[in-house]
Prior knowledge:
Blueprint: H1 2-66, H2 70-90, H3 104-111, H4 117-133, H5 146-249, H6 257-285, E1 293-296, H7 297-314, E2 318-323, E3 330-333, H8 335-351, E4 357-363, E5 369-376, H9 390-395, H10 405-415, E6 419-424, E7 430-437, E8 440-442, E9 455-459, H11 463-475, E10 479-483, H12 486-495, E11 500-503, H13 512-522, E12 529-533, H14 538-547, E13 551-554, H15 559-572
Parallel strand pairs: 2-4, 9-10, 9-11, 11-12, 12-13
Antiparallel strand pairs: 1-3, 3-8, 4-5, 5-7, 6-7
Helix pairs in contact: 1-2, 1-5, 2-4, 3-5, 5-6, 6-7, 7-8, 8-10, 12-13
Amino acid sequence: MLQVIANIRSRYRLALLVIAILSCATALLLQSLISIQKDDAQVINVAGKQRMLSQKIAWYANTMHQHNTLQHKKSLQQAARDFKYGHHFLIKKAESGEYLYLDDALISHYYSPESKLAEQSEQFYAAVALFLQSNDLSLIPEEFEVDEVEIFLKQLDKAVSLFEQQAKDKVTLISYIELGFWLVTLCLLFIELKLIFQPMEKHIMTTLDKYQQQKQHAELVSQTKERFIARASHEFRTPLQGLINAINELETSTSQQTLKQQAQYCSSRLLNILDELHEAQLLSSGQWQLTPVKSNLLETLEAVIHSYQFSYQQNSIELVKDLSAELNCTVELDHRRLQQVLGELLNNALKFTKVGQVVVSASLPNHQQLLLTVSDTGIGFSKQYPYLSTLLEIQDTHFQGMQMGLARVQHILRAQNANIEFIDKEPTGALVSIVLPVCITQEQGETSQLPHKLHCLIVEDNPLNAMILNGILKAINYTSDLAENGLIATGKVADSNYDVIFMDLNMPVMDGFRAIDIIRQELSLATPIIVVTANTSQADLEKAYQLGADGHVYKPINNDTIKKALIDVLNKG
């Protein structure tokens, strides 16, 4: 793109330069024409004055013959001087010897044997000088006779005509040259249009078409990538649901608890990796946004700390939690993103702490802000702690996670108007402090209540997922029916009354989108619909909400996520 801009700029500059040169040349030509016309006007004026002066000289000479007065003599002398000056001006030569104001016709008129105007003018001036020096003014020189003066005047008239013709010829020549310049300018502009502007326009259009194609290709790749990530997430989350449920339901002896914890930690890490992929996709597509919900703050933090207990034990690092009792309250914020932030801090603290302990502290100092700190005994910031060194991230030999830690943490905290501070501890270690604004909606003891009885419809094509969801509902004393696809579900909804519908999106025969649309539009039912899906595509989720869904949960599900979804949806109603 930069090369295209450079080419366009160079061509445009060339076109401007050519136009500027032509404009300057035309302006100079006009100035030259004005100067020539000015000089020619002066020459014609002098030539015409010569004719008038010759008449005045002849008249003064004849007058002095009858009335010799001092005034007449002075006037004759002045006229003679002016005549002599005018004659010398007209026949002036340049240093090269060429005449300044005489062309070939005028030279012939002034110096040819037939006219001899130059010689006659000099004789006329000489006669005036002799007349003025003579004591006998009764003798009039022959040059002042009427016949001679008329012949001389005709010669001078012809000279004036020749000077005027010379001026006209110059003006005509300049006009032709000016016209030629305008024609050349038009030709050059046409050439610029054909060789510069049209190719430039074609080049721009070609480049824009190319970049438009590249943009469309990039959008297609982005959509394909989004669909792939959503599909991969769906395919991972579905078996992961069964794995997590099996691990949680597994009854083990005391000696095998460690293996169960290890399995729980590994499944939790898999789920976190899927969440990181989903977050990265949302960030790249510009669809990332906070999803504030009301939930218990203490439970949110303890869930993250509990998931890391096994990993810390395996690395012989003590994980200490210091959570204030006042955290046991309902707070409205993006709890899942807060868990991601704390998980990232714990993960990095574990990665860069070889011995000692990591302490997680949290409190509500003024009941309006959450103060969360993670302190370790690791290498500290002075040893290139990963939060502050992009170079270390490049050279890092630890390959856990998706390597999006700090960028995601900063993005989440910035979106929630939170502050993060990095402190180097003495003698070793690091402390990360976060101050996050919170809104307490319920104090301890005030919990949202679920109805005692609900009859639910589970729309799910995967028997394992349907069994898990049915087990969760049975645990809270709710009854349920099963529909293997959207077509069966719409038939059941038309024939029976349900309090809540749990709807999968990706199913054979009829998917969840079409089923939601039929329930809302054709059956005109307002039964709460909770989407239960492994599809993390934001576009698909928005489509489900537009069709009439009331809430959603991502697989894998558990008792807490289902209860929370029910509370949110039923409280809306």
